[in-house]
Structures are given as structure tokens and as C-alpha cells.
Amino acid sequence: MPRPPEVSQVARSLPGAVYSAFAERLARHAGETYPLHVGDTWLEPPARCRVSDLDRPGLHRYAPPAGLPALVDALVERERTRGGAACERANVLPTVGATGGLAAAVATLAGPGEEVLLAAPYWPLIAGIVRAAGATPVPVPLVGAPEDGAPTDPAGVVAAVRARITPRTVALYVSSPGNPTGRVLPPAWLEALVGAAREADLWVLSDEVYEDHRYAGPEHVPVRALAPERTITARSCSKAWGMAGLRCGWLVGPEAVIAAIRGVTTHAVYGPPTPAQEVAARALAGPGDAWAADARARYAQVGREAARRLGVPAPEGGTFLWLDVRPALAGSEGGLDALLARCVDRGLLVAPGPSFGPFPGHVRVCFTATPPEVTLRGVDVLAQVLAEATGR
Length: 392
Known about the structure:
The protein is 40% helix and 14% strand. By secondary structure, it is α/β, with parallel strands linked by helices. The strands form 3 sheets. The chain has a 7-stranded mixed sheet with strand order 2-8-7-6-5-3-4, sandwiched between helices. A 3-stranded antiparallel sheet has the order 9-12-11, covered by helices on one side. Strand 3 (115-120), helix 5 and strand 4 form a beta-alpha-beta unit.
């Protein structure tokens, strides 16, 4: 029971800096910098879909807690076309980014003493979101080398999930295309994950914020199409149309749970900013698809080149490369922190693997955070640091 100046145990467990304590050090770097640690884009949002383009009165007013009607109608139409399952207005809820949506969903479904399985490596904020609800995040490694215990087929996926289910487990979180891996999970894997969740009567939290940015690999399968009765899907204007600073996303799910989540969001944040909902509705009216197609082509090009320079497979989707840097850590003092420090000394910041689960020998690189020419110079810095560390 905290008393001033103490705070709660949950609050103490959440780091103030999600990715790295090196960000402040990077800010003091004298030369060019390469902040490739945060998932953002160098591109501006679609034309006529920016706050500066808005000219109607009333944008300073509250929007309804259920969302602007024009936006909700546009989202329903999008989900009917692309979501793979029936959708009505009661199935959709605009949220304060996908982050706010997932936070409200976890708060609705999980509580103290309960557990949420996280397909790992995972988007780093989800672990803190689960802890903030008083629940326990439980990593389920799905992507990685077989020698590290990652499954290689649907049966292995089911076994990995079953091995971590307890009577306290209430939900399973999965992301495809993946952050940080850049991988699109095969349909058979998604079917296996949903089957395991159904068998254990779990909710499924499907993070599909990178659905518009798929370059290779299997076709994207909307998880809600596989289990609409238990799936809550998160989508994001931040990733779809380069609107990260506007904080607007949406959830899709069963009517009853969406209504309960709306109650949580109303009491926590009321709703997304009205201007953000307005520009999201504009993007859905047409400009968003054209912007996403152009961004997808640009992202794919720089992603392939960054992967080539680092000697890793090209991303199948998303905006990240996931690197196993354990060879560069072997026999060196300081481990991953020392490697990250050497990068920062040359102006480069990448995200450390432990932010994404039990991966102390990995780093994540965002290849869309800065213009391509800057990104590739940063990638060259990383390649040089790794080469020096391995004696190549």
C-alpha cells in the first residue's frame, strides 16, 4: 500500500524508456544520427488527410465515446471488405491508437493473478500493458532458430502454446506481420494458434497493425475470420497511413466485449482526438489505400537493401529487421549493452532484444524511421560494428 512519495508496485515495474537508456546519449552525439530504434515513418500522411487540411468547425469538441459516426461507418465498410468476418457498427471501436485499444482490451479481459500468453518476440508495449492490468505476461517463443526451441510446424506451435497454459491463462496475443520479426505467420500457424486458444477457451488478441505492409511470404490471414467469437483485432492509422502522432486506431471484436472495452476507454481517455478521427475517415475514403500502396513499395525496397547489407533475410512485412547478434557478443565483455554503446558512439540507436521478450542476443532495426539514404548509412554503421566484433 504506497504512501507519498511511494508509487504502486505495478508502476515501479514499468520502465519509463521502453527501448533503451541510450536515447539521451544519442541526443548528445555531435555528428549525424541514425535513430532506428522506434517504429515510425519518414513519410508524411496522405494529402488532404493531415490536421492542417481540416477546416470544418467543431473539431475542438468531444467526439462520441463510440467514435465519430462517419469514421465508424467507414471502418465497418473496411472490415466487411477486408476483415474476413461479418461486421456491424457495434463490432468496431475507434481507440487512442492501437496501443490504447490493446491496453483497454487487456484491462477488460485480464486482471490480477491472471496470465496472458504473448507470441514472442512481441511488440514491447504489450508486456507492460499486461503488467499494468495486474496480470502476468508469459512469452511463447514462436519465431527463431529451431535450436533455440522455436517451433518449425503447426504441431510445434500448438505444443508451445499448450506448454504454457495454466488455469490462470485468459488470453493469447499474436502479431502478424510481426513486430519485431518482419515475418508473416503462415495460415496454418495462425489456424493452429486459434485452435489452441479455442481448445483452452482463451481470448485472442490479434495485432494486425502492419497488415498494409506485406512484401513477401504467405498471404495475410485476418485472425478474426478464424474465430470471430473470441478474437479482438487491433488496427492502426499510425502504421496504415503514417499518422503515429495523431493517436488513432481501432478494435474489432464481438459486440459484448467491444461494449465492455468502450466502458474502459470512456473512463480512461474518453476517446481518440476528434481531429485524428476526422483525418482517419478521410484516409478511408480513398487516399489511404493509394498512400499505403506507395509506402509499401518504398518500404520493401529499403527493407530489402538494409537486409542485404546486414546479411539477413529480407522482411516479409512490417518495418523491421530482427538480428541475431550473438556471434558479435561471444567472448566480449559487457554483452549487449556494450554493443549498443559502441553503436551509439557512432550515432546509431537500435532496439535491444530484451524489450521483445527473452532475447538478450538480438536487436531490432526500423528501416522506415528515417529517409532511406539516412537509414542505409545507419545500417552500414551497424554492419561495421558487427564485423569488428566478430573479427571479419
